Each structure stands twice: as C-alpha cells, then as structure tokens.
Amino acid sequence: MKVQEKQNLHRLMWLANVQQFFQDKPVSILWEHYTTWINNRDNFETLYRELPLKRLRQLNKAGVERAEITGILITFHYGPYRLLPKLLVQMGYQVTLLVSGAVLERELNYYRSELEDAGMLQNQLECIDANEANSLRHILRAIQHKRLVLMFMDADEGVGKEKKGIGGQKLAVPFGSHFFYWRTNIFKLACRFGIPVYCTFMKRANNAVQWQIAPFMKIMETAKGQGEELMMGAFSALQMAFHQMMQQGWIYWENWAFIHQYNGQDALGKKGITAKGSWLAPFEYNRKKYLFDVKNRQFFEVAFCFTDS
C-alpha cells in the first residue's frame, strides 16, 4: 500500500471511530481535531527524543511526591505516555512494566538503553510479557519484591468483541455517545490476592517537561469490603479517573485510530451496502480486506466463500 493510501486510510479510520463518540460534532470540526491530534502525536515524539531519562534526572521534576506504595498502577496511552515509566524510575520506584509480546523487545531495549545512559541499575525497570502463560505469576512475584507493576489499559472494542462478554470479561465504560470496553481480569487478580490498585495519567503542567504525572488515585483498597463490593468500587473509581483524564483534553488520547477496524457481524444487517449514494472505499489492513462505508461510517470485512458447483 502506498504512503498516501495509508494516510487516507488512517484518516478514515480515525474519523469513523471518533464520530461514534462525538455524534454531535460536524465532520469539518472533526477534521480540524484530526490535525490537532496528529500535531500532538508529533510533539510527543519530539519530547521523547529531547527528554531521555538522563535529562529527566537532571531536571528533577516528576510533578508528584513519592509515596511508599507497591501494587498495580493503571494508566493509559494518553499524552506523552512513554515518559511515565521513566518519570516513575526517576522518582525512585522500581517499576515492572506489563506489555504485550508484540512490543516487548522494542520497549525493553529502549528502557535498557535509557537506564544505561543515565547510569542507573537495570533492575529499576523490567518488562513482563503479558502474553506469556505465567505472566500473572510474574506480576505477583514483582509485587512481593515491593515493585510497582505498571500497565496500560486500552479500549478493547471492535473485532470479535461480542456483547455477551460485557459484564463478564469486559467492562462497558460510557464516554460521549458510545462505550469503551475494558478487560476486567487485572481487577479479579487484585481482588483474589489482596493487591492494592492505583491509577494515574499524564497531566499538562507548566514545567520544563510540559507534562507531569497526576497524583495516584486509589482504585482498589483490598483491606476494605468483600470481593464483589471491591470490584464495583474499583470500576466506579477507574471510570471517574478516566473521565477526569479525558476532560483535560480528549484529543491527547492516542488510540482513536485503533478502536474499531469494522463493526463485526452486527454490521451485516445494516443498510450501508445497499443505501443510495453510499461510497465504499476498499483497503487492506493486517492482510485482511475491508470496505469503508463513507456515508454511514462503518467498516465491513470482505470475506470470500467458495462452494462446490
């Protein structure tokens, strides 16, 4: 796929996703927001280059006082989020970063290089492959050694996300005119083993970094309440933290382009394919073929069925 085609596809996906949450905004305004979103992303990349861990230590401005805590710390891909683990390390925390196998090697090498250049011990920041079968055991071991386990919680919506999973393995979180869906496994683990859970995110600040870590918010305090009560309280607190983050500027959230690839099997009954005046843009993504219904802002996967004649 040519560069221009990829850029156009990215724009269409971003627009289709964002319009589900902000149905009252005209397309012209959303295109302006898209430009702002791209500029923000480019600015964050500049911050990553200009603020290695070594310089962050010299600036000594993490933006939040050190609290003697261990447990699970939830955050999001919001703002310059790759600074967050380094800011935690700079504050003196021993951080265990939970990442998917797809990004493990890249992230691990990146942080090892940062630690080495800053003259810090490698055990200040370690990574766990979230896809490994024994990842939960590694999480428990890290907490046992008084480490802070950092995980990024993302919208888990789109392909193959059936409604029957909501309330069981996923939590529906209202935002704008639509929902995000978050997996609940990490809360069940915390509840079962009595692990405290906190939340934070990157927050705009008037300092040399331009951003700082928001003060930690308690999401689950395992000393209080029964299992079901703890879970409900944790979900409510996390939703409040998420909305607080998004209210400072929803355009700083990275994942708008990756929420939906298409609308799943439910889209087959929609009117988009047969509607008059509907424009369909074909494209290929992750080796799968799709049609984007421009008028109705839906994605359809193109599936080929072969039968014996």
Task: Kindly describe this structure.
The chain has 309 residues and is α/β, with parallel strands linked by helices. The protein has 2 domains: 44-255, no CATH class; 262-309, no CATH class. 37% of the residues lie in helices and 20% in strands. It is built from 8 helices and 13 strands. Strands 3-2-4-1-7-10 form a 6-stranded mixed beta sheet, with helices on both faces. A 3-stranded antiparallel beta sheet has the order 11-12-13, covered by helices on one side. A two-stranded antiparallel ribbon has the order 5-6. Helix 1 packs across helix 2 (27-50) and helix 7 (185-193) crosses helix 8 (227-247).
Layout of SSEs?
Blueprint: H1 3-21, H2 27-50, H3 53-59, E1 71-75, H4 83-90, E2 95-99, H5 101-117, E3 125-129, H6 135-144, E4 148-152, E5 170-175, E6 178-183, H7 185-193, E7 197-199, E8 202-204, E9 211-213, E10 217-220, H8 227-247, E11 280-285, E12 288-293, E13 298-301
Parallel strand pairs: 1-4, 1-7, 2-3, 2-4
Antiparallel strand pairs: 5-6, 7-10, 8-9, 11-12, 12-13
